[in-house]
Here is the input.
Amino acid sequence: MKLFLLDAYALIYRSYYAFIKSPRVNSKGLNTSAIFGFVNTLEEVLKKENPTHIAVAFDPQGPTFRHEAYEHYKAQRQETPEDIRAAIPLIKEVIDAYNIKRIEVPFYEADDVIGTIAKKAEKEGIEVYMMTPDKDYGQLTSDKVFMYKPKFAGNGFDILDDKAVMQKYNIASPLLMIDLLGLMGDSSDNIPGAPGVGPKTAEKLIAEYGTIENILEHTSEIKGSLKTKLEENKEQIIFSKFLATIKTDVPIDFHKEEFERKNIDEEKLEKIFKELEFRTLIDRVLKNNGKKENVKKQPASQGNLFEEFTDIVPEEKKYSNLTELNDIDHSYYLIDNEKEINVLKDKILKQKFCSFDTETTGVDPISSELVGMSFSFEENEAYYVPISPNFEEAKKQVENFREFFENEEIVKIGQNIKYDIIVLKKYGIEVKGKLFDTMIAHYLINPELRHNMDYMAETYLDY
Here is the structure.
């Protein structure tokens, strides 16, 4: 059995801020970034890990026991963004439609609820995965309890057991994670720690003395300003350890059958997705209840500016507010003779920048061959040049554009442009000048998201 416990607010905040520079807003004006990101994360876990049991834990409204003990606990955090406040009830509706158990215990944070359930499930021989980016969960790990931590770049997850946590933080026991946080503090939770003691110093002290209590009993052996800092802030350090300790005795029962993964309420979830205008999720999660039209799949190839559009409109498109090709004025030209190629080349050479793309026979740039090339330098206007399957003839066709590709004054724009550069090199072309790669640019501003062209077109262009 495999139990996944999700820290709701940690994942919701992460999802919201992943879209902060380009928020998803539907036609009703609702910011759906947090909801969309949360559902994507949930779907990835369900499909990749296929848990037998699952639950989502929320922080309760109002103060917790830590707030009562320390009025400044998390006081430095900004007020919850209004868009997140509006998203929370909808996220709870989504979770309910997935038939996933929601847990919320007054007076206790989600960390404590997850910690308690994790330890109770562990005693029953269940493998537990705590899904959160927060490092304080490391104190709960064992050979059956794991941190399931989203990677910073949004490319998968790190799975950490007790041994991995001990190695990562240079501690002899996962429980010493509490002492580590108690010493160095945690700015995200406003845990003060020992002033002037950072991670490296904290690790050295714990390696030598173990717990905070033992460190404070042996300050006579410590020299210089560090000794003074520890002795003058003794009560604060001990209290910081209290704040960093995740409770495992929250008054909540664990009945594993209540956490079993159940079938999605497809009708309810589809209704929510339609209201939120999550067209792609209706398709990907629900397959539109079997109503999706059969659309011929294209063979795997390098991304192309000129995809084939059919008259088939899948059922879910009725509910989409995304723009389609037929909704905009556009001019796409097929360039298939020498005269037209020369005219196009002259136009390109007058530009300060030009986007280009290669259509190939596969996804491996080393073995793939050119099928065509596309160019665009004006909005809603583009050109496609088909390339001969005969390699020698193809080289001659590509040669017509050498002056553009090797012109160092014209900025070349592409998506995963390294692929195109490698392909063109086979045809004797060396791409020169400044390059702008939309995939790399998107990674730099939103590293935790997907970077394919379809996703970016939908997110940035509503297309």
About this structure: The chain has two domains: 2-256, 331-461. The domain at 331-461 is CATH 3.30.420.10 (Nucleotidyltransferase; domain 5). The chain has 19 helices and twelve strands.
